[in-house]
Amino acid sequence: MKKIIVFVAIVVSAVLFLAQAGMSSGTIKIGAVQPLSGNLAVYGQGFKMAIDLAVDEINANGGIKGKKLEVIYEDGKGTAKDSVAAVRKLIDVDKVPVILGPAASTNFLAVAPICERAHVVLIGAESASPAITKAGDYIFRVFPSDKLQGKGVADLVIKLGYKKVPVLYINNDWGKGLKDEFVKNFTKKGGKILSEIPYDQGKTDYRAQLLKIKQLHPKAAVALVYVKDGAVIFKQAYELGIQTQWITGSAAKSGKLIKLAGKAVEGLIGTYPNFSTTSPQYKHFVALWKKKYGDKKIGIFAEYNYDMVHLVAKAIAKGGTTPDGIRKALYEVSKGYKGVTGDKTFDANGDVGSAYGVWMVKDGKIVTRK
Fold first, then answer.
1. Which residues in the chain come in under a pLDDT of 50?
2. Residues 345, 337: contact at Cβ < 8 Å?
3. What is the pLDDT of residue 179?
4. Which residue, 145, 218, 234, 336, shows the most beta carbons closer than 10 Å to its own?
5. Shortest CA distance to 109 belongs to which of 86, 139, 132, 83?
6. Looking at residue 10, what is its pLDDT?
7. Pairing state of beta strands 220-224 and 245-248?
8. Is the domain of 165 the same as that of 126?
9. Structure confidence by residue, pLDDT tens digits, 270-291
């Protein structure tokens, strides 16, 4: 009798296991922590659209060895605290082998140690802090380090003929990292920093910081800002009558900045990671975007999110669904991989390179500056 009971129990367990396995056998699940609400939601919805676009394309082409790719989204709300909670849920509850990491370097750096300790792959498409380079063996990004952009901004300021500038920067890991790289490269080229002025994200009044700049009467000023904060800052600078050439980075390169700040950002100049918009890969991406989203504008860094998903899918196809297999395969599949945003070959630290271009706001539109 006991043997029969044991046998039945084994059979039931096996059936339940197979049923459970059957439900997931046709799906490969990965995680994503995106700022779907909060201060960075102005970016987050566009990131999700690009990720979904890549997933749809992969699944329409047979998935990953016949299995559908599915993304489990968690809202990081644009904060380190919520990003940490979201990552822990994805690791502990959903057991995902790879996570498409949160935007903003502070948030990314907050979750990187958790993923590193858990041996779960973390990959980002926006975070640029130089500190991420040494964040761990399981940490990757398809967006270039600010070591490159810091030099790019410095080169731009010098090229424009400005030798003395104040620098206003957001007081977080991204802002401080980019500011430090800019200052290092700018002073190395003979430039002088008139003042380093930090500001806190999410405020409604930055006049105190802007008055410090106004008192300096600079011909040009560097502002390392996000879209939402930048819109407030540039509008208040305009209202205060600050007449200077504002120079910024890639995080502000968005039509939403113009929509929020209007004529206050006319003439704004900035740098951005540059890639070809005439390549077959870019044209393919644009065609897919239009087919899925119609006339909706391609969001800032959308192309990087798209490339990120395709690299992850290729790594899973080659290395399997374990974090170690994916980690090792990412180096292999990235070698010489030409994505929408150019060469995505990872170096030993999981970083990629990039060239930099110059953009500006002219007649209410973002254009490439020659």
1. 1-24
2. yes
3. 96
4. 234
5. 132
6. 43
7. parallel
8. no
9. 999 889 999 999 999 999 999 9
Considering the domain architecture, whether residues 305 and 291 belong to the same structural domain is answered as: yes
pLDDT recorded at residue 42: 87
Exposed / middle / buried, residue 113 (Cβ in 10 Å: 0-12, 13-18, 19+): middle
- Per the structure block, which two tokens stand in for 257? 């900045």
- Tell me which residue range forms the domain holding 349: 10-143+278-353
The pair of structure tokens assigned to 161 is 């003929």
Tell the residue number behind the tokens 């699940």, with chain if given: 29
Residue 3 lies in a domain: no
The residue assigned the tokens 């964040």 is 135
Two structure tokens written together for 309: 């998903």
E-assigned strands of the chain?
27-34, 68-75, 98-100, 121-124, 139-141, 164-170, 192-199, 220-224, 245-248, 269-274, 338-339, 342-343, 355-362, 365-368
363 & 300 share domain: no
What is the reported pLDDT for 370?
76
- Write the CATH number for 153: 3.40.50.2300
Give the CB-side neighbour count of residue 188, counting CA atoms within 13 A.
Answer: 11
Q: pLDDT tens digits for 222-256?
A: 999 999 999 999 999 999 999 999 999 999 999 99
Which positions ≥6 away from 103 have C-beta within 8 Å?
34, 35, 40, 43, 44, 47, 76, 78, 124, 126, 127
Residue type, 8: V
Tell me, what DSSP letter sits at residue 62? T
Q: What is the rounded (10 degree) CA torsion for 143, 148, 149, 151?
A: 180
